[in-house]
Design brief:
239 residues; mainly alpha; two-stranded antiparallel ribbon; 9 helices; 3% strand
Length: 239
């Protein structure tokens, strides 16, 4: 520590930031704090820099998570500022991907809602056992080969008719096929489409998924704000 700087015992630092003394020790051991000086008796001696480090770490946690926040602080205290900023960049890139996936799901839902509203009425042949592959292809306007490709990619999972083994598409399967067709026309790759279908099946209905997406969007916005606050605290700490 610099001459004249206020010296803090472990308990003093713990009280200053609302932690236990053991947590302070753990954070130093993990590299969240810069190394503390020691008295002749072996007791840790902290200073203002350590208090600022703890406050910075706690500002990073809500947006970046405890693991990434720890890695960022450790890199800073190891003198690897570029590495710390790379971790920040990676976290923001991952959040961007989440937001892009959310936008894809929302686009698919809106397109699906429009198609369901304009879909033709059920035909007399649409019995309780569902539709054959050719009927689904004609209904949504694709080739049967496209449906087979989507099935091979794991996007569609139609049932099979006993005895004949023919594919049978129920209402949910037709819905999923519509979603795939819509997203493929927007040039989305299979890896981007698969999570949309997983979410739709998990939610059970378009309306339930719409509610879930709105909740997720709100959470992403809150996380973005938290990341901005954490990055600002980190920038101040680096100064």
């Amino acid at each position: 520590m610099e001459n004249g700087e206020r010296r803090l015992r472990t308990v003093d630092l713990a009280r200053a930031v609302g932690l236990s003394t053991q947590q302070v020790r753990n954070y130093e051991d993990a590299g969240v704090l810069p190394p503390a000086a020691r008295t002749e008796a072996g007791y840790r001696v902290f200073g203002e820099r350590h208090r600022e480090a703890l406050l910075t770490y706690r500002a990073l946690q809500p947006g970046y998570g405890a693991v990434t926040a720890t890695r960022i602080m450790r890199a800073v205290h190891d003198g690897d500022v570029a590495g710390a900023l790379a971790l920040v960049d990676a976290a923001h890139a991952a959040l961007h991907e989440e937001r892009a996936a959310l936008r894809t799901s929302s686009e698919a839902l809106e397109a699906l809602a429009g198609r369901e509203a304009s879909a033709p009425p059920a035909r007399s042949g649409d019995g309780p056992h569902g539709l054959r592959i050719g009927e689904v292809a004609a209904l949504i306007g694709v080739r049967t080969s496209a449906l087979r490709v989507w099935e091979a990619a794991g996007l569609l999972v139609p049932g099979r008719e006993r005895g004949t083994g023919y594919r049978v598409y129920g209402p949910a399967d037709v819905r999923d096929a519509r979603v795939v067709r819509t997203l493929r026309r927007s040039h989305h790759l299979f890896d981007r489409i698969r999570p949309v279908l997983d979410d739709l099946r998990r939610a059970g209905s378009s309306e339930a998924l719409r509610t879930a997406l709105e909740t997720r969007g709100t959470a992403l916005t809150a996380r973005t704000r938290s990341m901005l606050a954490g990055a600002a605290a980190l920038d101040a700490y680096l100064e």
